[in-house]
């Protein structure tokens, strides 16, 4: 961030200090997509489809920026906390962190290499900008509730955001955490659901039905909005209106497409774990309008 405030202060105008236009954020999202695909191609492992569905959300959070953060001071005490609960989509998180200056861009080339800091799931002990070790699903929201409660207990104003998958919501720990969040009226907490409708192996509604999902979150005491998770202008608007209701945690259900932006991966269950070939990577580069990274 360019703010000159001290390490313990938050500037009231800091979130808009590097505001981007929607077309610039769309470009950032596609850079995240191609970076993530290049990384999974390099490692021959990963979760490409979910990386691509979450890219627009990450671009707006970090690029607008919605999150108050300082790449050069990753542990700035007054930063907003972001937790990637769907930790298997680490390649997308690493990509946006590198593109925003948290780590050297060239380090993306080491994804899943022996002794690399870029594990298949994010590790806060290794990498700046990672708030929690995630991977086992259903853990991110409970951690986020704890973060938000800690802010209240300390009298701090920073906010907590957690990005979950939709299949992940089949884990009961999420709903225990949701009950706690509404009980304590934590309106500094925002749950973002990447509702791409797919999970490992099949469509979510064929695995365990979750609809009506918005009604479930409302019943658990959240103020809920459903949006197009690939519409940059809509995402900017909904994030800037948080919290939706004083005294209630917020939930944004982002309707997305798994594999978004790459024709052969879109809405295909196989691309939960799909890894692009060199030819597919070149095709993705052309479709996304982003030059190959390496």
Molecular structure report:
There is one protein chain. This protein is of the alpha/beta class and 294 residues long. The protein has a single domain, classed as Rossmann fold (3-Layer(aba) Sandwich). The chain is 36% helix and 11% strand. It is built from 9 helices and 7 strands. It has helices spanning 22-43, 48-63, 90-99, 140-154, 172-183, 204-207, 213-219, 232-240, 278-288, and strands at 81-84, 160-165, 189-195, 198-199, 202-203, 223-228, 250-255. The strands form 2 sheets. Strands 1-2-3-7-6 form a 5-stranded parallel sheet, with helices on both faces. Strands 4-5 form a two-stranded antiparallel sheet. Helix 1 (22-43) packs antiparallel against helix 2 and helix 2 (48-63) runs parallel beside helix 3 (90-99). The longest helix has 22 residues, at 22-43. The radius of gyration is 18 Å and the shape is globular. It starts with 21 loop residues before the first helix and ends in a 6-residue tail after the last helix. The model is unreliable at 1-8 and 11-17 (pLDDT under 50).
């Amino acid at each position: 961030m360019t703010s000159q405030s001290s390490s313990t202060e938050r500037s009231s105008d800091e979130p808009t200090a590097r505001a981007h236009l929607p077309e610039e954020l769309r470009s950032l999202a596609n850079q995240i997509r191609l970076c993530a695909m290049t990384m999974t191609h390099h490692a021959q492992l990963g979760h490409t489809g979910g990386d691509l569905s979450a890219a627009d959300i990450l671009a707006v959070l970090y690029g607008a920026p919605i999150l108050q953060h300082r790449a050069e001071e990753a542990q700035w005490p007054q930063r907003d906390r972001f937790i990637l609960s769907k930790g298997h989509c680490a390649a997308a998180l690493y990509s946006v962190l590198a593109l925003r200056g948290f780590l050297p861009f060239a380090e993306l080339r080491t994804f899943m290499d022996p002794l690399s800091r870029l594990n298949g799931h994010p590790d806060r002990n290794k990498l700046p900008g990672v708030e929690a070790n995630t991977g086992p699903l259903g853990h991110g929201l409970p951690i986020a509730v704890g973060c938000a409660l800690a802010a209240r207990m300390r009298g701090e104003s920073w906010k907590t955001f957690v990005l979950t998958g939709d299949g992940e919501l089949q884990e009961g720990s999420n709903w225990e955490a949701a009950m706690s969040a509404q009980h304590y009226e934590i309106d500094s907490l925002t749950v973002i659901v990447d509702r791409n409708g797919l999970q490992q192996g099949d469509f979510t509604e064929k695995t365990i039905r979750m609809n009506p999902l918005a009604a479930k979150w409302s019943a658990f005491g959240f103020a809920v909005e459903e949006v197009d998770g690939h519409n940059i202008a809509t995402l900017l608007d909904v994030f800037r209106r948080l919290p939706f209701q004083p005294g209630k945690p917020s939930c944004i259900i982002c309707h997305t497409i798994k594999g978004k932006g790459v024709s052969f991966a879109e809405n295909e269950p196989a691309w939960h774990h799909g890894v692009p070939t060199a030819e597919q990577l070149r095709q993705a580069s052309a479709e996304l309008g982003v030059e190959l990274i390496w």
